[in-house]
Amino acid sequence: MDVGGSRDEGPRRAAVAERPRPKVDLKALFGLEPGTSWQWTTAVKAAVAMIVSFGVVALFIEPRMATLAALGSMTVLYEKKTPYAYRSAALALVGLGFVAAVAVGSLASALSPWAAVFSIGLTAGVATWLCAAWRVDKPGPMFFVLVGTISTIVPGGPADVPMHAGLAALGAAVGWCVSMSGAPVRARHPEYQAVSGAFRQLAKLLRAVGTKELDHAQHKASVAVADAWRIVLLAQTRGYRGTPEAARLRSLLRWVSDIHLATTQVCMARTERLPDGAADFADEMAASVADPAAAPDPDELDELRRGLRPRSLEGRVYGLLARAAGAARRTPDEAEEEDERGSRLHDDRYPALWGALRSSLTGQSLILPTALRMWITVTVAGALGLWIGLDHYYWVALTTTAVLQGGNVVLTLNRSLQRSLGTLLGVLIGALLLAQNLPLVAVVVIAGCFQGLTQAVVGRNFFYGSVTMTPMALLLAYTAVPYPVEQLAQSRIIDTVVGSLVGMAGALILWRRASATRLPQTIIKVLDTARRCVVEVLDQDVRISDARRYELRRDMRAALVSLRGVYDSAVGDVPRARSTRPLWPVVVATQRTGYLALSALQLENPEPVGTITLQRVDLAFKELVSSLDERRTPRMGAMPRLPAYPRINMELRALSSAMTSAVAQDERAAQKEAERRAQRERRRAQKDVDADL
């Protein structure tokens, strides 16, 4: 990890980014999410899938049951970014989940309304657990609950359950076909998009060097690279992985990963911005992933490299970019067979599903408390709606499900307000449409269009998604069970408000400290993984195999991504967030230490250190882990000198200092709380004395 030589390198530490500040304000409620785009492709597919499935059943079978097919078609919303070979199997499982939700809901509603309530809650809890454990992307459990909810109001008895499930399966099949429609013409588009996305995030990271947005950009780039590895790995089918096209894509994946790690070293060593040409070059590389002719000329970087020492960090980044451009310019037929970067990936193609379920049930996982919170709160919401006599109690449960997907208390409050306000506007639109007595064909087309609009905007702001989703839901519900329009609109508003309030109560009462409680253990996991990486790299008696190197990099990157996810959730878990905010410098120093450990794994011939120094490095990491576990000030003593790796020294010292400050703040906060408690006790005692007098 050569850190010397660049004209811009210096001893100063890169500025710490401002910590995430989730809050409830007008921008959070109505502003568009930065860094996201309008999902027009998903919108068109969602609209087509709903119109086809809804229309076929409504026109040729039974309009009141067409809603089940329409909702079954929402399989099209899942696995939008995964390779088609994997997507075909994953969507089939999603479709089976929809069918199971319909069967359970339909059978329960035939027994009693109370059974229907408990079936909706069970569906919400199980769907949340499975989607989180198996990393099912958005919309997650939402539409499993929606399908199960609507199945409880579709007319019929126990004998009609097979028909209900069959109609949901028909809709799921339509959604499957629409989602897979791109396979014949753009069979490798998802993989190309993933690697291109990694290059684009790399460009943003290069632009963030020397700015206060560095730590956030570093996290986003790491997530993009991890996603690209996952997507490309899923695409390695038996007939494809041996082709020149697959080898070229694997080569580009390894290039973007190596450039990201080299940029990490520059991030830690440079406090000034990089020239814009480097980021522009990375953006051009993103376009060349699918089109070799669009690859930039490596000579464009000559001006940036002029004046840099050959072994400087900045020069190394430019050199890797140039070599990656050379690899991108080669078509699959021109790719060299001896290119080691195009060799097979050292991992299993499919994730271990049972292993993922087992790990989700451990005490350190956030998945189990999240699923339990969803199950209990949704069940209580539906039961409350039924108990107080709401005609559409199932909408209460559905609203609670949508609100609880926020994750922490602050985000849940945001989603609650967005859901309520969006529903108010959406109800007006839906009521106006229903009052027109539209023909069935028009209802089918309009519902599909609203579904498409919802998918286009919901990723940028949940409020606007709620505005467009509500008319679609009203049209589907009215088709299944006709109801007076005015009463339907009024009931929808009341149910939404009640469901939002119950969802807020669930977020405030049930496991609200889950993320904050797990944050120290998550930091410890990152430090322990970083320790293993650094010690194995520096140990001159250990030779790391390619498979072991990949395993360490995978575990280190996963731990880093998890760290930011847990902190972002914990900082919104009020009121416990007050004790979480001081840990931000600790999180940043831990994150940087982890990225430096990742960078060390990239070195082919790292400079070894002596046995005594190696032991002291190992002890330094273990002392940091112990002090964090015991909530005490680290007793580091003299840090081991690592002349070839000074940034590791710097971040370990920064981490020790940040932990000392956090412990001091905890002690002061505890002292103030004890003083306030003693003062309350004195006032209470004085009141008792006054009362006796």
From TrEMBL:
Family recorded in the similarity comment: Belongs to the YccS/YhfK family.
- One short Pfam name that applies is FUSC_2
Kindly state which keywords UniProt assigns to this record, in alphabetical order: Cell membrane, Membrane, Transmembrane, Transmembrane helix
- This protein is called FUSC family protein
- Keyword Lipid metabolism present in the record's keywords: the answer is no
Residue ranges of the region described as Disordered: 662-693
List, alphabetically, the InterPro entries matched. Answer: Memb_transporter_dom (IPR049453)
Native organism is Nocardiopsis coralli
- Membrane topology designation: Multi-pass membrane protein
Q: Where is this chain compositionally biased, Basic and acidic residues type? A: 665-678
Record-annotated Integral membrane bound transporter domain positions: 381-505
What is the annotated localization of this protein?
Cell membrane
Query: Which residues span the membrane?
Result: 43-63, 84-108, 114-134, 141-159, 165-183, 366-388, 425-450, 462-481, 493-511
